[in-house]
């Protein structure tokens, strides 16, 4: 006898539906996000204030090393806004990817005991990262305003597109690596190595023209560098917060040429990463309980 189709709005129990199932489990997602935040800051004196302290210390180190000692603050002005706008984009990406990669293994007791969409665990990493991202954006806006920045609609659009690229790319790769990490725990160490050097492969600490000039005889390497979705995302953040405070001379050297074309490519690659990551995750999630 053929199996009857489920009524509209319902699905077979225990059947993985990928990211499509997240909307129907918003309450569980909220619980997971609160759990992650509570566990992370348990017995912590500063608590959520660490989301200010960590990027603040990172910013000061980079600013004095790259800006003062190596003189980039004279080449890119205002360098503080340029640096911090790129930093928060990369920090958002690295936090999502790192936490999402470990999310299934760290939540093994829940995965083994009850059925719920496994995608909830990597997705909860996105919302935890956004909780940390929000105060950093507030600090960036205040610093940019103090530097003479004037917001504009194009800049607002650049910020939104940049955030979408970072979220889609990081979640897509996070889903992929989280699924593979269940069987091969070396993956999280590989991801740690990638995250360690990620800041150097995007124009966060320097202008992209440095790469263009250094690789003048290898234009294909420059195009490969520009094809990195995080490069486009960082430059979109620069367009959103730094452009309005920079001089005309700095604007020419500080933002990638044909930025919106590169942003379109980055969006396409990030969407592809999200689709592939979700499909791989759905396929491998069938054996998570046995592997854990």
UniProtKB/TrEMBL annotation:
The keyword Cell membrane applies. It is a multi-pass membrane protein. It is found in: Cell inner membrane; Cell membrane. InterPro entries: ABC2_TM, ABC2_TM_bact-type. GO terms for cellular component: plasma membrane. Residues 46-284 form the ABC transmembrane type-2 domain. Keywords: Cell inner membrane, Cell membrane, Membrane, Transmembrane, Transmembrane helix, Transport. Belongs to the ABC-2 integral membrane protein family. This is Transport permease protein.
